[in-house]
Amino acid sequence: MEFKYILVTKPSDYVAHVELNRPNKLNAFIPQLWIELGQAFTQLSTDAEVRAIVLSGAGERAFTTGLDVVSAAEYSEVMANLPDTARRAAYMRRHILEMQASLNAVERCEKPVICVLHGLSLGLAVDLACCADVRLCSSDTRFAVKEVDIGLAADLGSLARLPKLVANHSWVYEVSLTAREFNATEAQAVGFVSHVLPNKAAALAYGLDMAAQIASKSPVAVQGTKELLHHGRDHPIAESLKYTAVWNAAAVQSDDVQSALMSGLNKTKPHFAKL
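Structure (tokenized):
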């Protein structure tokens, strides 16, 4: 894959590394970056050569600082030239839905996504991290749900997803209403990230190693596990159990089950067909 603002590499077998690649602008998002992010994860979702994905930001200073202020000003200028409230609202609604769709592509990706955050991780950074399945960060990471500081409610997913990811709803309301920064230690304490590493290099290495471990497993099992975890998050237990039964009625017929069992008995490394 070749993009202008997204860098996709294959650091090891069946692992893809996706980097936000505007380091000179602190990986702030402009329209083309939105589009490329959605395209990259849509393609990776069905790429049989990929079984796990690591998402990070290029450069040492920031994962992303959110929306590019110049780009945001251009949208405001377009709206100002529209004739009435209804047309301005329609334009903005379409724009918000397009941005949401790009982040949704990360969450809906069939492959597990490990997000590695570092440095400035503000606003949109939290929205994007919420779409990942695993979140890691470096000790210097500075987070914030920043939108109230610019006069709006966050509209790209933090307010919908954070309460489902973090059990402490009081904390979610606090950081969302005040826009205050919180550090890596606090993010781990509330469960937003699972591990804090000393620096970006260590966090990225940890994430890539985790991705390699996941990629060594049965892709049928891994992708099924992600699907069922997502379903369990959004549905009652009884519904999820029924869905799991239907899902596994097909999945357990995979050759992967026999391969995994035999490799365990023979103490050999299993090899699984592409999916």
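Residues 6-215 form a domain with the 2-enoyl-CoA Hydratase; Chain A, domain 1 fold (CATH 3.90.226.10). Residues 84 and 90 are 10 Å apart (CA to CA).
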